[in-house]
Design brief:
single chain, globular, alpha/beta, binds adenosine-5'-diphosphate, 41% helix, metal-binding, 396 residues, Nucleotidyltransferase, domain 5, 17% strand, 6-stranded mixed β-sheet, binds magnesium ion, binds acetylphosphate
Length: 396
């Protein structure tokens, strides 16, 4: 009883559940976990909210009960139904937006939940999905401790210049700032570098988190100095279905053309990026397998803009010693890494293609002045760490 921690990481296209064993005091050992991919566009009737309900429908977290979600039930039921037999000591959640209020994880209360719900418009692809399981557990089992762990918190170390838009102060005061996201992932990368490569961690590092959502982060001494994402998770790098950096004049033009807020929001969050450019798919693997010129255009655009942004981040840390690739594309796509680094060859970056093809931990050529690493991220572990810390401290 009470010797497990449940972690829920709801992204824009996947839902990950991890269970950690707490029997060894102060030691988080991963017990088991699972992932559902293709949520959203590919399976419009399968939402994270439904999946969370399906799993959490009974207090012992054993039953999966959602009649219209046969596939989800089967997947979740197969591994959760037979494995989780206990009420967790706490549930830790990835919450994408913490707004100006949270620079650290926090125990969930009615007030916290109400505040986080006000941020839904700032992360329409994520926040509602992130909060749905929190709400379900909070209402049905209020005595289970829950902790909100934010994508934005890791970036709260940013300098004022980095945090601002060139807008009047009143907008900043109302929360219109560059927050940065994927902070749980960057926190993990910083920890791994500190543990395994302390020299690298002390240097000038850019980490590129390239998943369905994509961003890059400049770090010094394991602290975030700058991020490509801003007020929302739309800015910066092109993504699976989001455009990344966009002239705000385009949005004004869309309004003038009579598009509504909802139409523009849908276009920018669901129909742009690799999907919009190619007109074929949001998945980089489909584009790499296609002969269509529009697929090549999308791949070229992605590699060009990612490289351009990495170069831009170097201003914040005055150069670059190490580039780290992580998340779905970063960890697995040798061609994407190769094209991005090809656009940065003028910096001296050179890959060892055999190591790159093998997704090796270090893929740069021996003579490359900038080391390039592939490091699988683990946002769930960071959520578990923060959750344990928050419940131990009894934070509110
Ligand atoms: N083997 C692979 N080769 C190329 N891309 C991959 C591979 N595996 C996953 N991806 C890409 O990673 C993306 C998902 O990244 P991930 O970080 O797992 O997702 P999320 O952003 O939902 O957390 C998918 O869009 C897919 O295109
Ligand atoms: C913040 C963000 O874009 O997250 P994801 O990559 O999970 O979509
Ligand atoms: Mg993710």
């Amino acid at each position: 009883m009470h010797d497990i921690l449940l972690v829920i990481n709801a992204g824009s296209s996947s839902l990950k559940f991890h269970v950690y064993d707490l029997r060894e005091p102060d030691t988080l050992s991963f017990a088991y976990g699972g992932q559902l991919s293709g949520i959203g566009g590919a399976h419009p009737d399968f939402t994270v909210r439904d999946a969370a309900k399906a799993v959490l429908v009974q207090r012992d977290l054993r039953a999966a009960e959602a009649p219209d979600l046969a596939a989800a039930q089967k997947t979740l039921g197969d591994w959760l139904g037979t494995k989780i037999h206990r009420v967790p000591r706490a549930v830790g959640h990835r919450i994408v937006h913490g707004g100006p209020q949270f620079a650290d994880s926090v125990l969930v209360s009615d007030d916290v939940l109400r505040y986080l719900e006000t941020l839904v418009p700032l992360a329409p692809l994520h926040q509602r999905n992130n909060l749905a399981p929190v709400r379900v557990i909070h209402e049905q089992w209020p005595d289970i401790l829950q902790v909100a762990c934010f994508d934005t918190a890791f970036h709260r170390t940013h300098d004022k210049v980095v945090e601002r838009f060139a807008l009047p102060q009143s907008f900043y005061d109302r929360g219109v700032r560059r927050y940065g996201f994927h902070g749980l992932s960057y926190d993990y990368i910083a920890q791994r570098l500190r543990r395994d490569m302390p020299e690298v961690a002390r240097g000038r590092v850019v980490a590129a988190h390239l998943g369905s959502g994509a961003s890059a982060c400049a770090m010094l001494d394991g602290r975030s100095v700058e991020s490509t994402m801003g007020f929302t998770a739309l800015d910066g790098l092109p993504m699976a279905t989001r455009p990344g950096r966009l002239d705000p004049g385009v949005v004004l033009w869309m309004l003038e053309q009579g598009m509504s807020h909802d139409e523009i929001q849908h276009l920018l969050y669901n129909e742009s990026g690799l999907k919009g450019l190619s007109g074929i798919s949001a998945d980089i693997r489909d584009l790499q397998a296609s002969d269509a010129p529009s697929a090549q255009l999308a791949l070229d655009y992605f590699a060009y803009r990612v490289a351009e942004s990495i170069a831009g981040l170097c201003v914040a840390i005055k150069g670059l010693d190490t580039l780290v690739f992580t998340a779905g594309i970063g960890e697995h796509s040798a061609p994407a890494r190769s094209s991005i680094c090809g656009n940065l060859a003028w910096l001296g970056i050179e890959l060892d293609e055999a190591l790159n093809q093998a997704n090796a931990p270090c893929i740069s050529a021996a003579r490359s002045p900038i080391a390039v690493h592939v490091l699988p991220t683990n946002e769930e572990l960071v959520i578990a760490q923060q959750t344990l810390r928050a419940i131990s401290a009894g934070k509110r």
